[in-house]
Each structure stands twice: as structure tokens, then as C-alpha cells.
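Help: read this over?
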Amino acid sequence: MKQQKATRTPAQKKAERRWRGGSVAMSPVSSKTPVTFGILAVTIVAYIAALLIGHNDVNTALGYQAIWIYPQPWRILTVSLTHAGLFHIGFNMLALWMIGRTLEPVIGPWRFLALYVISTIGGGAAVSLLAPGSFVVGASGAIFGLMGALVVIARRLGSDITSMLVVLGVNFVYGLIVGGISWQAHLGGVIAGAIVGLIYYSTRKRSQRVLQIILLIVTTVVLVGVAYIPALRFVSAFS
């Protein structure tokens, strides 16, 4: 990290100045990521607890389906604590760790947490809108949201995002081809994350803090509405 910081190019230094006073770069990674490690810890503990209590029972109680969020709204968030198996949680947490070490130091821990939560809601909203009858588990919507925000912020800072776009594209296409993967949650997460990333970059000045909070609240309310409206229609259609 010290070597990367010492060998920054003029373009990287310019990108730093364009963010909050030049104190953080996009390229070096950092171990000062309390929210990233906190989410990792909570998700892993939840997975272990599910194994001890009963994996299927816990996933059924916390997973996401449009028909269930009307009486049980917490599912739109608790879905990120559920996973189908070891490889599922392993790949998601690896992606979280890799992206979080770069993104959290740039935007700050509280903004990173808000991004993760809003991306989770965005994934659920897309499932309600595009596949209300499907039952989904996993933090993939949130992970795709982190990738979406990272792409937007890095692009705005003038960084080369070719590799990020390739990884994002490959993962999304993989979800379309392979059965049993909710591409709807991926799509919703990446769109929500990209919107939040754009909000963060456009309101990064200290004087715009209130505006940033208002925009985040509005985005969250809209996404919850998108999740609930199709869910209510789905419930009424089968009641």
C-alpha cells in the first residue's frame, strides 16, 4: 500500500483531489474497513447459526419472496444473511472482502453500510417486480450493488474500470445462463448501487451532506415501494 501510494501517477493524484480533498485513492486497498469486516462477521455467524438450528428452517424464515414481505417486511434485509451453501457464502464474502477494502476507505464506513443496505433492498425490489413468485436467498444483490457503486465512483474519478466491467458482465451473464441463480436480484442490486454511487459522488462536499441524506432516503423509499407494490398485487392475485 505504501509503495502504491508513493508511485501514484498524476492521473491518480488528480482523481484523489476530485474526491474529498485528496486523502483517499481508489487503487490501494486498506485494512481499515470496520463495516466490511462487521458484515462478514455477522453473515458468517448467521450461516453457522443456521447450520446449528436448521439450515432450511432459517433460510425459509429469513429468505425473500414477494408474497412474504407484506406481513414480514424484515425479509427484504434478512435475505442478505441467508445462503444456500458453503460455496455460495464463500464467493459472496470473498467478493465483499475484495470490494470493501477498496471502496469503504473511499466513501467512509457509514456510507458503505448505507450502500450495502440499499443495494440489498434494490435486489429484493427487482425480484418483486420481475419474479414475484420466486424465493431467493443470499447477499448477491448487495454484492452487485457494491460493484455497481464501485464502477460509477471509479469512472467518475477517472480510473480505468475495464476490468471491473468485465467482472460485472461475466457474473451477470453467468446468472442468466445457470439455473437457480436470481439474476433479478443481481440486476436490482447493481442498479441501486450505481444510483447510490452517483449520489455519493455528486454530493461529496461537506456542504451537501444534508442533500445526500435526503437523496438516500428518497431512493430507499422508492425501492421499498417498488418491492411492495408488485408484492401486494401478487398477494391479491392468489388470495
